[in-house]
DNA primase (Tautonia plasticadhaerens), 168 residues
Amino acid sequence: MGMQGFSKFNYLFNLARARATPCHSVILVEGAPDVLRLAEAGLVGVALLGSEATDLQIQTLVGLGKTILVAFDNDAGGQRAGERFWTKVGGQGVTFMQWGVPAGFKDLAEMTADSIRTRTPVPGRCPIEKGGRPTRRLGAARLPEGGWRHGRGRLPDQDKATVQGTRR
């Protein structure tokens, strides 16, 4: 008789912190170690606990009402995950952009907190904000020419769900 396991597909690691932050953006990563490195750098991130975003995770991210900075791993799998993420998020009322991992690093967990802080316009504060406001909004609800790297879409009302996953 085995114990039923934890379904990582229903959760985002560090979601409570992302909800509580006054920041207008959140950094989306694949794994918990990336979130911990971001926290060490004074930034807020959430992790999919894998590379594939489920519909429930996407609805939860949309429900945050924040800009999503996507920082998936710097490998072929992370690139494919980003493309799949764009396909799912396009048309869902959320602004997002790639906040890629620099060459030479597999993921944010391999970077130092200082090197992560230097990537932000206001070190130790919200990555794309100055004076508490987003510095830019991005794109339209279609795949941008040249890839998935940024965009904006809208979630149809009938498809919105609460964070608990029940329909409104």
